[in-house]
Amino acid sequence: MKKTGIFLLFCLMFIFGTNLLANDYEFGSKGGHIVPMNMSNIAIKSEKLHFKLEKVKRKYGTMNEMIVTVRFVFDSPDAGEKYIGFITPEGGNEEWDNENHFKNFRTVVNGKNVSTIAYRLTDLIPKDVKQLEEVKKYFKEYNEEKAKQEAEYYKRSFVYYFKVNFKKGENVVEHSYQYDGSGGVGYSDFNYVWTTISKWKNQKVDDFEVIIEPGNAFIAIPETKMKNGKEINWKLVGEGNIDYGYKNYYNKDGQYKVLYAKLKNGYLYFKTKNFKPENEFNLVEISHLNGNHIFPEKTKKGFKFRDDLTQAAYNAVSLTAAELKQLSNDDLKIMRNYPYAVAGYDFSDKKLKDYFSKFLWYIPIGKNVELGEYDYEVVNNADKIIKSRGK
Predict the structure, then answer these.
(1) Mean pLDDT of the chain
(2) Predicted structure pTM score
(3) For the packed helices 329-343 and 373-388, what is the interaxial angle rounded to 10 degrees?
């Protein structure tokens, strides 16, 4: 069997530098598209990409992780032995939070499970010049000084690689894994690098489909454009609220469009021919309405995200006497029910149901909803204020 020497790198990219590990943002991991390290004569005929948010128990509490499942159909002009590799980034954070940020990686090639060998990424950086040169190409800000810093930062990270025999013509590669996002105050970013599709022979995916299953999470997806200038327009299959809002660019003129979604059931999807992405995919899970995520004032359909009582609800314990005096008992009733509304409680009280229905994130799912520890503080604080009035 002729050996082709093509090495594929799974671009599970880590953002380097300590500036991103500030108190209000912690970088976990990022998913990405497989790319050829050297010039490739293999084209992508089709790709089906599936994102699913799933709750897991961590030492800091229950949180969502992203499960990624991908099915590729590659077109190889010849048969040969291929080496495929994957970088796992959890080592960078492992030293300070002792968590595994990327796990459960599995690969199937042409219907057969493939065993994997692992070696440290630091062995990759100083020894393989060709691979290092390719890293420089798609990490635009890469330089030799950073290479030294990254080698130290990555000292516990691993490259997972395996050897497969591609046949001439179509070859099916399926892989799956899960990773946690990068955490900010009240939200998590689940990023995925897919512009590296351009590294393949045809620089596109002939038939492309992406499916997102957010579960009951409240999510935002910033606009994603293709090389032809067209936007990715997400479709809903199932029940829920989805709508677009417009936000200002940071330090720029103009606005960009963001899709907001809260589903009762089902999924979002996008399907197209000749997929050439212009920018990367980003999904934001919004876990706290008073966090650092900046919302538009309202959506195209008129849905709101917050109002004056939102902030009061989550800061009831710190309200001044003058501020409390301005709040009616009806206001306090709304405040104490915010956590229930966010969790999807189906209110029997028509006033409460009508009030919360103006928010995109309110999707009634039933009476049995789960609140977090902090949510009960919000409820109890509002109840204490009402009780103190003797009413």
Answers:
(1) 78
(2) 0.83
(3) 170
